[in-house]
Design brief:
- The chain folds into three domains: about 60 residues; about 130 residues, 3-Layer(aba) Sandwich (Rossmann fold), CATH 3.40.50; about 160 residues, NAD(P)-binding Rossmann-like Domain (Rossmann fold), CATH 3.40.50.720.
- About 50% of the residues lie in helices and about 15% in strands.
- The strands form three sheets. A seven-stranded mixed sheet has the order 9-8-7-6-10-11-12, with helices on both faces. Strands 1-2-4-3-5 form a five-stranded mixed sheet, with helices on both faces. Strands 13-14 form a two-stranded antiparallel sheet.
- Helix 14 crosses helix 15.
- It starts with a helix and ends with a helix.
- Bound molecules: NADPH dihydro-nicotinamide-adenine-dinucleotide phosphate and 2-oxoglutaric acid (AKG).
- NADPH dihydro-nicotinamide-adenine-dinucleotide phosphate binds next to helix 8.
- One of its GO terms (biological process) is glutamate biosynthetic process.
């Protein structure tokens, strides 16, 4: 059999095995098939490494363990409430389990397994000793009082604290989990275990947090995009950019794009998007930060304040831009959105969110030969800076803003370089291939060295 048809049949049989084991898990299946399309042929092309016999990819898709637990709490009216909490510990070959917690009504096992799986490759790319995990709950912090969020976090941590620790599993934030939630979670961990350790990252500065961690995912994505754009001899200076979301990642993506001379014309939340052709400058971004981080309001208020247009229930991808930075949630760019971006002259997509593009959308981007960077490479700056927070906690030191930013910049440059090294053919870079192979190799080698565990 020719090598390519051998690889095709290996891929088909791997995906048949995988889907039979994970029925009804569409997000997890999507994330695994994207990786398998690259990694199965790579394994087949390198029989000398022994990865097929050692079933490395099969083992990577089977979490080490999954915790699922009841989270009972009381609302402000004195009514009992029950949510479901999770922690997926998927792989610790290169370091303690590491990855965020998501509080959102759509959280389920498929979503968390996809996020944990992506985290394996992302964390490997950071160059730091970080294994992979993800967790969360189907709890919606929106519309809840601070007291309700605190009671929920305390109940969630009362169970979670049995399974995490500074050298075993170090969670952080994700959608719906920011500085407020991390504070309540850390307080409850310390109260129950009596340990003041860096068991969570994304902590506030007064109790062991790192400078630049809040900024790191957005800044990191922009640093990565700068590398990719320079690699094709272009620049961000003067570029028109579209950003989705208005949470942590979106806010600091906008801040850094402004600093580098680009103009951001969109921002969104789950109720719709705002188009501001004048650009979201520093003052307007400060309004978004106060709106979202303090008043916890809806993005429509931005349109009312600055006379921009608000498009209820819609996504921003029909607006013409040079570069797009999806920074809200999974599958927010489908085939139609991808077509609109391409037709309007978009030259690059840099994923701030995890898996924001559907499989079909990625196919269109790759066919159109624009720059397409998967989140596991481009949004790795957040977890990388969490790794730097862990290092500072171990040393009992706090590095300056400049020191952390320099390390983040170097890490993003290094990740870009690895993508170029593993993803280049005929002068162009396939960032999906580069990120998946580079991320896989390090973990696979560690697993081979550690035997059948
Ligand atoms: N925080 C981090 O360090 C990292 C985050 N990421 C990823 O970045 C993305 C954003 O995370 P983050 O900024 O931290 O989260 P936040 O909770 O701070 O913000 C999330 C933003 O996305 C919007 N959003 C969420 N769900 C949907 C939806 N179904 N449809 C439309 N909009 C939606 C929210 O709107 P609304 O308020 O209306 O719900 C909000 O504007 C996620 O995919 C996350 O996994 C990746 C790496 C690290
Ligand atoms: O900082 C972390 O540990 C996790 C960040 C995260 O959840 C992610 O990279 O998706």
């Amino acid at each position: 059999m020719a090598a390519s048809s051998q690889a095709d049949s290996a891929l088909a049989s791997f995906m048949e095995w995988f889907t039979a084991r994970n029925p009804g898990e569409p997000e997890f299946t999507q994330a695994v098939s994207e990786v398998a399309e690259v990694v199965v042929p790579y394994i087949a092309a390198h029989p000398e490494k022994g990865y097929a016999e050692a079933k490395i990819l099969e083992r990577l898709t089977e979490p080490d363990r999954v915790f699922m637990f009841r989270v009972p709490w009381m609302d402000d009216q004195g009514v009992f409430q029950v949510n479901r909490g999770y922690r997926v510990q998927i792989n610790n070959a290169i370091g303690p389990y590491k990855g965020g917690l998501r509080f959102h009504p759509t959280v389920n096992l498929s979503v968390l397994k996809f996020l944990a799986f992506e985290q394996i490759f992302k964390n490997s790319l950071t160059t730091l000793p970080l294994g992979a995990g993800k967790g969360g709950a189907d709890f919606d912090p929106k519309g809840k009082s601070d007291a309700e969020v605190m009671r929920f976090c305390q109940s969630f941590m009362t169970e979670l604290c049995k399974h995490i620790g500074f050298v075993t599993d170090v969670p952080a934030g994700d959608i719906g989990v920011g500085a407020r939630e991390i504070g309540y979670l850390f307080g409850q961990y310390k109260r129950i275990r009596g340990h003041f350790t860096g068991v969570l990252t994304g902590k506030s500065l007064q109790y062991g947090g790192s400078l630049i961690r809040p900024e790191a995912t957005g800044y990191g994505n922009v640093y990565f995009s700068r590398e990719a754009i320079q690699h094709v001899d272009r620049s961000l200076e003067g570029a028109v950019c579209s950003v989705s979301g208005s949470g942590n990642v979106a806010q600091y993506t906008i801040e850094k794009l402004n600093e580098l001379g680009a103009k951001v014309v969109t921002v969104s939340d789950s109720s719709g998007f705002v188009h501001d052709p004048e650009g979201i400058d520093k003052a307007r971004l400060a309004f978004i930060m106060a709106l979202k981080n303090e008043r916890r309001g809806r993005i429509k208020e931005y349109a009312d304040e600055f006379g921009a247009s608000f498009h209820e229930g819609q996504k921003p991808w029909g607006i013409a831009c040079d570069y797009a930075y999806p920074s809200a949630t999974q599958n927010e760019i489908d085939e139609d959105d991808a077509r609109a971006l391409i037709e309007n002259g978009c030259k690059g997509i840099f994923e701030g969110a995890n898996m924001p593009c559907t499989h079909a959308a990625i196919g269109l981007f790759q066919g159109a030969e624009l720059l397409y960077a998967p989140g596991k490479a481009s949004n790795a700056g957040g977890v990388a800076t969490s790794g730097l927070e862990m290092s500072q906690n171990k040393l009992g030191l706090q590095w300056t803003r400049e020191e952390v930013d320099q390390k983040l910049t170097a890490i993003m440059r290094d990740i870009h370089q690895k993508c170029v090294e593993h993803g280049s053919t005929d002068g162009s870079v396939d960032y999906v291939k580069g990120a998946n192979i580079a991320g896989f190799e390090k973990v696979a080698q560690a697993m081979m060295s550690q035997g059948l565990v």
